[in-house]
Design a protein that fits this description.
It is built from nine helices and seven strands, in the order αααββααβββαααββα. It is an alpha+beta fold. A five-stranded antiparallel beta sheet has the order 5-4-3-7-6, sandwiched between helices. Strands 1-2 form a two-stranded antiparallel ribbon. Helix 6 crosses helix 8. The protein is globular and about 60 Å long. The termini are far apart.
Length: about 260
């Protein structure tokens, strides 16, 4: 039996990807020294790579602190990927109508590994409200309505995998996490916030493709109140369900 041949490498590419991943996981900017320590290299090893990444617009350097942060260039590239572009083209006009009807912001999220990312946001013509930044990435946890919906409406193997991620993040059993996802599936989305986990009061519905899985979640964050009037809550839920169904149909999915 022949021994396995060593796989060809691309050290410069690996170095650049290490830096991008390190910056993506950082809550704030990082200095060259901090980055070098994070990726296990010397400052001199990463200097030229940082210069190249800055020149190409992938990272930005704060002239005052010297710290590096990611720009939105990677997000813009991902948004040009045909399935994402198609999804946004179908969703944005519907989201604009939804925001106008309920007078609240709405946003669209997709799975991003074991996290989820905001890929679009629409604001209503309103002076007060709650919204999230496009490009923001959040952990999969029951604290977020979008996370629960994205995990609940997946094919079985992926659903089980995401339930385990949620269980780990929330420090609960996988069985309990799956039970929560079952409730979301049965309701057709997240319309209850009395589970003891939810951090932001929000309603969320899946955007379903032809295979039956959620490719995105459409979410309406609500201004935190002691209690939303039943009639108002019912109207928001109905409008959101309708909007999500329209987008699902536009991308050839099921309602």
């Amino acid at each position: 039996m022949n021994p396995e041949k060593p796989q060809p490498g691309a050290p410069a590419l690996e170095k650049g990807l290490d830096l991008l991943e390190a910056l993506a996981s950082a809550a704030r900017g990082m200095s060259q020294k901090q980055l070098a320590e994070r990726v296990g290299r010397s400052v001199s090893e990463i200097f030229r790579m940082l210069v190249a990444l800055e020149r190409r617009g992938y990272v930005a350097r704060d002239p005052a602190t010297g710290e590096y942060t990611l720009t939105l260039k990677l997000f813009r590239i991902a948004s040009q990927f045909p399935p994402t572009e198609r999804l946004l083209k179908a969703a944005l006009p519907v989201m604009e109508q939804l925001a106008s009807r309920v007078q609240l912001s709405c946003h669209l999220t997709v799975l991003h590994g074991e996290q989820f990312m905001v890929i679009a946001r629409i604001e209503p013509e309103w002076l007060m409200g709650w919204s999230v930044k496009v490009g923001a990435v959040f952990p999969l946890t029951q604290q977020y309505a979008s996370a629960k919906v994205l995990a609940a409406f997946q094919l079985e193997g992926r659903r089980q995998e995401l339930a385990q991620v949620i269980a780990t993040n929330d420090r609960i059993s996988t069985k309990k996490a799956l039970a929560a996802l079952d409730r979301i599936s049965a309701e057709g989305g997240n319309f209850s916030n009395d589970d003891g986990y939810t951090r932001i009061l929000a309603y969320s519905c899946p955007i379903i493709e032809a295979s039956g899985r959620a490719v995105a979640a459409m979410t309406v964050p609500l201004v935190k109140q002691e209690q939303i009037p039943a009639a108002e809550a019912s109207t928001i839920a109905a409008e959101l369900r309708s909007a999500a169904r329209i987008v699902s149909e536009k991308i050839g999915g099921v309602s």
